[in-house]
Amino acid sequence: MSQGVERVTAAFRDAFGGEADGVWTAPGRVNLIGEHTDYNEGFVLPFAIDLAARVALRVRDDGAMRLVSTAEAESGTSQLSVQGLRPEHASGWSVYPAGVVWAFKERGIDVPGFDLVLDSDVPLGAGLSSSHAIECAVATALNDLTAARLDAQQLVLATQRAENAFVGAPTGIMDQSASLRGRSGHAVFLDCRDQSAELVPFDAASAGLVTLVIDTRVAHSHADGGYASRREACELGAEVLGVKALRDVSVEELDEARGLMDEMTFRRVRHVVTEDQRVLDTVAALRESGPGAIASFLDASHASMRDDFEISCDELDTAVEASRAAGAIGARMTGGGFGGSAVALVPLAEEDRVRSAVLAAFAERGFRSPRLFTVTPADGARRLA
Ligand code: GLA
Fold this sequence. Notes:
The chain has helices at about 5-15, 95-105, 130-145, 150-165, 175-180, 225-240, 255-260, 265-290, 295-305, 315-325, 350-365, and strands at about 20-35, 45-60, 65-70, 75-80, 115-120, 185-190, 195-200, 210-215, 330-335, 340-345, 370-375, 380-385. It is α+β, with helices and mostly antiparallel strands. The protein binds alpha-D-galactopyranose.
């Protein structure tokens, strides 16, 4: 039995007595490139990481949901009821399992009550989709334990619905797609219009590189206004241009678009349109030449998010600049922005130097010390026991 399974089943015994019906896991994600393109029906290239949420779960016959987390900050048991579940009933992390139950029920699936213990090593609030990891683990468990039989696409849409309508974050489909469809050694190249996904080999180690995550520890929330206002600007841009979504606008058409809208909306549009192209270029470069060939796209993506989409912050810019100056070949913020993490591709031999330089740059600017760790592409959500 793996250590992770042992830990969560032991915690289950402590919390509820007896054995769980099973253990399910779902990973967090890093997005290599393609930011704020998912809800514009464009392209993204995330990968599932080797940090994951695990849930041990046992069905109950009285419709109650009892939820326990092993995280120190989350002591105690939350108790909810599957019947009549509403967003205002859930608080803290329980909003994620509750949201999934709600979204399954909305699809007409008969969801039983259950006891659940969560154990996760995806850092919270680091922009690595800790919440989607919980949702995808719970959705995978409920899919197995009920007659739901949802396929990967339906699971993606159900967890997105949980986020949008229950948690209240107007996010796209990237994070849950990575968590559900990820594969060891690969990134997930996803077309967010039709949800078709291709696995693209991403083996940084074979190119002598590591993927270093720099968690700025600046809190962000996509249920706050910044994410939603970017989404609105994109929708306005698409409307002015007379297209269904910004996915339908090419880089060549940008010049013409400039005169048709206000300057800020144009910059939002330019980010999305050029970012879609960068994803396509990155996928082509990865396939042709491997991870060493994608660095310039990462840099350009960061500049576009900083200057055009305006979702970076001083800490993210410092992480990117300091890591690049110390030897990273490319770096960018990853995820929704306004905090969270940056990701840098670093030659193995330079890793220590880059880590020290980033820590020093943060200290010099009086920022909270960031957390640094490397990640590799891992398998997506599944049953462990
Ligand atoms: C968050 C959302 C995703 C996506 C990214 C930005 O992670 O959950 O759907 O929009 O931001 O690329």
